[in-house]
Amino acid sequence: QVQLVESGGGLVQPGESLRLSCAASGFTFSSYWMYWVRQAPGKGLEWVSHINTDGDRTYYPDSMKARFTISRDNAKNTMYLQMTSLKPEDTGVYYCNLRLMFKQYWGQGTQVTVSS
């Protein structure tokens, strides 16, 4: 069955960086666009980024475009999110997300806390 396992979160200070990973299994990873979505404390889900199957097209909201970089390694069935210049407002749980026509899959999330 589909499994998405995020890792790499932690507590960092403002301005620091983190690299999140999403290990995928149970489906043909290279055939699907993949998404990162986050949820800040007490708020709803927020789209962070997504990437096409080949990894040569990436998408971000304007607020994250200069600081975040999504990538994927189809040989390793893994997606990444490199986050730089982190801000306190980036605090939240970051989820890996697979969107099929009639169903979505989510990982368990990884906590990112940006605080001095």
Describe the structure.
With 116 residues, the chain is mostly beta strands. 0% of the residues lie in helices and 51% in strands. It has no helices and 11 strands. It has strands at 3-7, 10-12, 18-25, 34-39, 45-51, 58-59, 68-73, 78-83, 92-99, 104-106, 110-114. The strands form 2 sheets. Strands 2, 4, 5, 6, 9, 10 and 11 form a 7-stranded mixed beta sheet that branches. Strands 1-3-8-7 form a 4-stranded antiparallel beta sheet, with no helix packed on it. The chain is globular and about 40 Å long. The model has no long low-confidence stretch (mean pLDDT 97).
Task: Compile the SSE list and pairings.
Elements: E1 3-7, E2 10-12, E3 18-25, E4 34-39, E5 45-51, E6 58-59, E7 68-73, E8 78-83, E9 92-99, E10 104-106, E11 110-114
Parallel strand pairs: 2-11
Antiparallel strand pairs: 1-3, 3-8, 4-5, 4-9, 5-6, 7-8, 9-10, 9-11
Q: Let me know the average pLDDT.
A: 97
Count of alpha and pi helical runs: 0
**Uncertain runs:** none
Radius of gyration: 13 Å
Q: For the report, how would you describe the main beta sheet? A: 7 strands, mixed
What general form does the structure show? globular
Query: Helical amount among residues, as a percent range?
Result: under 10%
Give the tally of β-strands. 11
Please trace the helix and strand order, writing H or E for each element.
EEEEEEEEEEE
Distance between the termini: 40 Å
Instruction: Tell me the structural class.
Output: mainly beta
Q: Which percent range describes the beta-strand content?
A: over 45%
